[in-house]
Amino acid sequence: MTSFAELMAFQRETEALSQVAGRLGWDQETVMPRGAAAQRAEESGAMQSVLHARRIDPRIGEWLEAAEAEAVDDTARAQLRHIRRDHARAMRVPGDLAAAIARQAALAQGQWAEARAADDFATFAPVLAEIIALKREEGAALAAGGDIYDALLDDYEPGAKATDLDAMFSALRPRLVALREQALQQAGRRAALEGRFAPNKQMKLARKLAKTFGYDMARGRLDKAVHPFSSGSGSDVRITTRTSESDPFNCIYSTIHEVGHACYEQAIDPTYALTPLGRGVSMGVHESQSRIYENQLGRSRALTGWLYTEMRYAFGDFGVADADAFYGVVNALGRGFIRTEADEVQYNLHVLLRYDLERALISGDLQARDLEAAWNDRFAADFGYPVARPSDGCLQDVHWSVGLFGYFPTYTLGNVYAGCLHEALRVAVPDLDAHLSQGRLDPATEWLRENVQRYGGLMQPRDLITQATGAAPTEAPLLAYLEQKFGELYPA
Amino acid sequence: MTSFAELMAFQRETEALSQVAGRLGWDQETVMPRGAAAQRAEESGAMQSVLHARRIDPRIGEWLEAAEAEAVDDTARAQLRHIRRDHARAMRVPGDLAAAIARQAALAQGQWAEARAADDFATFAPVLAEIIALKREEGAALAAGGDIYDALLDDYEPGAKATDLDAMFSALRPRLVALREQALQQAGRRAALEGRFAPNKQMKLARKLAKTFGYDMARGRLDKAVHPFSSGSGSDVRITTRTSESDPFNCIYSTIHEVGHACYEQAIDPTYALTPLGRGVSMGVHESQSRIYENQLGRSRALTGWLYTEMRYAFGDFGVADADAFYGVVNALGRGFIRTEADEVQYNLHVLLRYDLERALISGDLQARDLEAAWNDRFAADFGYPVARPSDGCLQDVHWSVGLFGYFPTYTLGNVYAGCLHEALRVAVPDLDAHLSQGRLDPATEWLRENVQRYGGLMQPRDLITQATGAAPTEAPLLAYLEQKFGELYPA
């Protein structure tokens, strides 16, 4: 057995254990008895400790050294690149620090929930300061002299640099601000949904949508959870959604979004299963798939025409006269505070705000205690109205509490990638709308499968998008798409 | 940190991982996508390999040596006894042999299913011979010069010896044969259930029964599976049942049976959670709980009186005139071939048959190729009619195919223990029937919790039953109970 083969066998077992650990998370959010939480924390902790021990196993270093000479093709070299990177990252962070972060994150998550419920940022600020200090320490260990924020960002988006994001994001921000201002001057004249939408009918429609968008139910399942998510790789990729009796779009678009994530995982070359290549390559690329399914396809005029008929069939009359009005309702812009409820235009403004603030928190330019004021100032500048309470502002997202710094920008990067892919898809499938208006997603999902999804972790994220679209990714296609779509929906 | 504390911390993590591995099994039987089977096999294999590595970790031996002097109380000494035993067993079986057994068992399980479907024992015999040879090798390694069958039996019933079982079982057999003959002379005059029983109504009733028998739904859940089972320990103990539209008793009594197993796990002293004492102490004691819930309580005249009313309420008229007739239907004896469908009297005859045959297979007195003939001879002797096909005979159970030798006798040992416990319970709660007839199980389940369940693995199985009942366990109470109950139901 070659060193490469030994390393891959070891890695395969690690990947299998990682799938098991991930499924514990699925179980916890869907079917776990409510009294089992404390025991589950120990179970998850034990799995993480097994996985950590494997990631820093000294044999990996020995195998890697010997395997370099044995890696004869691109696939083998890509496997080694992932293994080397993961091993190096795991080795750089001292065990004590990793444990301290895990402990503080668990603590802070609980305190964040209490602070949000009480709308009290001041009490939470010191807890946040502590997790920031620990993450700075981790970032410094990972960066090994380089940029700390980049080192954290790299965890979610390998190869990405804040300076590249800065250029992209500063081009997006003014035009998004202008677009939302123009649109909101016209708001208030939209139709709205009326009536109640039975949860079981929503779930039935969600199942149909999942299949229509290409999700393979034989290798997955759809359940309800408080927060929708997709979980797992290979042949067991599960998704969840939720239902609100007054707002069926919550269920419908959460489902399509998670289907995008899940289809990516399901489409990866099966020969990569249970290897480092057998997972989506980055959060940004993952989000590009969920967002193009949800928005560029799912909220298109063509697809919503078909969806309108499906919804009439499922729910009867819900107070929207025709497909054209329905398209307007699906894409309605409004004033709001919450990122997860935001439309396509304003969503990215939410993300850019968090990106700038978290960079300042990590660099030390902004102190945790000053976050609420900084948030509120920036929000007023971009959205034009004030935040009245922290649960509508800097306490709305859990991310920072659990140590997720460098994660937020991948949301907008995903939207940027989705814009590039959508532009290329429209060129490749000129009659796409004719298909979408009949509820046929195959031409789109097959193009994405063929050009993006099947590669798994083979290429670096940017290279993958460049190869798929024929050009390096920029914000221009996303901006053009948004300005065209919402300019038409909300003419000046 | 003392060696004892270090050992217990290590063990706690092992127990947590073992719970995770067990839950993978639950997932597979209830919610796993059908296309995920191959990946799941790798995931389960990876978990088993992690668990095996921990069981033979050389630090355990060192800790044990140092910890002996530190174990100051009975609980600590019982923990060490379990850890020492598990470690010694794991160390005695060479890794290659354990892997060969796992491989052959997986292979044989598939071939057994095919052989049973084709009613073809001859093709399966060599596969069975191979797993027997491997299990003999394992038994020899475990026995270290002692009796091979006892060494296998010890895996399921610590401390039990075949010579003790022989005495018990040979006293049972003639009286059970006589009792079934007497009863079946009277058979054919019973009422039977009529109509269809909607699965959702069965599940609703099953949930009510589970709660009535004391199952804590906040630390468990009830789902459907092909074969009912209970899974997990501590605060996450899940059960499954199944429904047949024509036979609601399948669902009802499977549920009560699994509730017995689950209540045992749920009642164990919470300070034992995630330690070797935090699980049911043996298969025999486990089965004593499931069987006393199912039979001595669940099929009693008093409880079936209450259940009759519940069933009338759930299903309307099902062709049984009154509670007395219903009691007869619940406890009807009939001619059959299948262990899992057998009544209280004939069930143990099935088990005794398997026990004698598996002892002969392990000792070498019986060759795998001669099993079908030996089975059919013994069946005709005990049941009085011939087996026409192996799916009704020696191919009906999966156990031997997957290497379970020494497991079958724990079923009857459990019934024997249940007989002893029931006798003591009736003395302790003289008005038990008055409670049961009102659907009040608490006096029975509290007595079992207090006298058996809460102890977990603290005592050896025999000692536990002896302490609970005030006398060493014998078959006499079970025989007296069966002869009284079925003598009255089927008078000569």
UniProtKB/TrEMBL annotation, chains A, B:
Its EC number is 3.4.17.19. It holds the Pfam family Peptidase_M32. It comes from the Bacteria. GO terms for molecular function: carboxypeptidase activity. It catalyses: Release of a C-terminal amino acid with broad specificity, except for -Pro. PROSITE patterns: PEPTIDASE_M32. InterPro entries: Peptidase_M32_Taq (IPR001333). Keywords: Carboxypeptidase, Hydrolase, Metal-binding, Metalloprotease, Protease. Broad specificity carboxypetidase that releases amino acids sequentially from the C-terminus, including neutral, aromatic, polar and basic residues. Belongs to the peptidase M32 family. This is Metal-dependent carboxypeptidase. It comes from Roseovarius pelagicus. The lineage of its organism: Bacteria, Pseudomonadati, Pseudomonadota, Alphaproteobacteria, Rhodobacterales.
